[in-house]
Amino acid sequence: MSSKALSDELLLLVGFLLTSARGLLDEPKTYGPSRLLDAAGRLLEIMDEQGMLDESLGEIRAEIDRERFGPMDEEGLFVKLDELALRWTELIAGRF
Amino acid sequence: MELLEALRTRRSVREWTAEPIRDEQLRGLVKAAASAPSAGNSQPWTFIVIRERGKLNRLRPAAPGISGVPVALIVICLERLRTGQEPGKMAYEMDLLSLGAALENLLLAAHGQGLGACAIGSFHIPSVCSILSLPQHLEPKLLVALGHPVRQPEPPSLRPLSEICFFEEVGTNG
Predict the structure, then answer these.
(1) What is the pLDDT of residue B21?
(2) CB distance B147 to B115 below 8 Å
(3) I want to staple B153 with a disulfide (CB 3.0 to 4.6 A). Which of A26, B11, B33, B59 is the partner?
(4) pLDDT over 90 (residue B147)
(5) Among partner residues B62, B150, B153, which is closest to A19 by beta-carbon distance?
């Protein structure tokens, strides 16, 4: 990915975050976690295109994408977010 | 595709391939949407089809409800000049219901053609109006993100009929 393409992707992401922030003032409470999960997926997608994801991170990205693009399920999302957060914590533990 | 099968198997598709949609198909979707019932046959809608990549890229961050990268968007606008009603008035609410009927027609028509669609209500209205240079009498109410699905999503969980359908009085399931 060229520097211009990366910059464009990041600009789109910033736009997404800004309009999400505005929208969430009025939107249902559960849209907040979904939006943050979507942002995480978008960031991982950019990192993937930059060759920054190893296999484990790629697996988490795939799981996040399954949630992003699948049917909305409020109860399931809470469980899934707990799992993802814990897995992420364990994954990056060795890096720092 | 048989109608009831289409009703049962339609899904909100949020992930699309890069394959474009033919203009003829897009016109067909709008025609299906505009065939929906409307209160007093008011037809209070205008549909704006977006295909250009540049405009799609500007609209995507304005509409955080769009998760993937659609190849087309259809903006469903309430055309205020048709009825001149204000929010809170019954006719305005009826117009919104009419837009909902048009939306469902559009989603089913897309599904029937093997396309994947997702209705988007989360978007920043002033940004969308600015990007599309919308005149004052057109209020964007819904976006429909479209493309060829990467995969068919899993069915969503649905509330049981016994919880939402009653015969003669609430609490009697028949």
Answers:
(1) 98
(2) yes
(3) B11
(4) yes
(5) B62
Q: Which residue of B has its CA nearest to A28?
A: B122
CATH code for position B11: 3.40.109.10
Percent of chain B predicted with pLDDT > 70 = 99
Residue A30, domain extent: 3-93
Q: How far apart are CA B160 and CA A63, in angstroms?
A: 28
Note the pLDDT tens digit of each residue in B65-79.
999 999 999 999 999
Predicted TM-score (pTM) of the model is: 0.90
Interface touch B122/A27, C-beta < 8 Å: yes
List b or e across B70-84, with b for residues whose CB sees 16 or more CB atoms inside 10 angstroms. Answer: bbbbbbbbbbbebbe
In terms of Cβ atoms closer than 10 Å to its own Cβ (0-12, 13-18, 19+), residue A18 is middle
Chain B window 7-46: which residues touch A at a Cβ cutoff of 8 Å? 11-12, 14-15
Tokens 């969430």 locate to: A24
Give the closest-approach CA distance of B62 to chain A in angstroms. Answer: 6
Q: Which of A47-51, A71-75, B20-24, B128-132 has the lowest mean pLDDT?
A: A71-75
* Number of domains comprising chain A: 1
Are the beta carbons of B153 and A71 separated by less than 8 Å? Answer: yes
Domain, as residue range, for B128: 3-152
Q: Is B156 on the interface with A (CB under 8 A)?
A: yes
Q: How many domains does chain B have?
A: 1
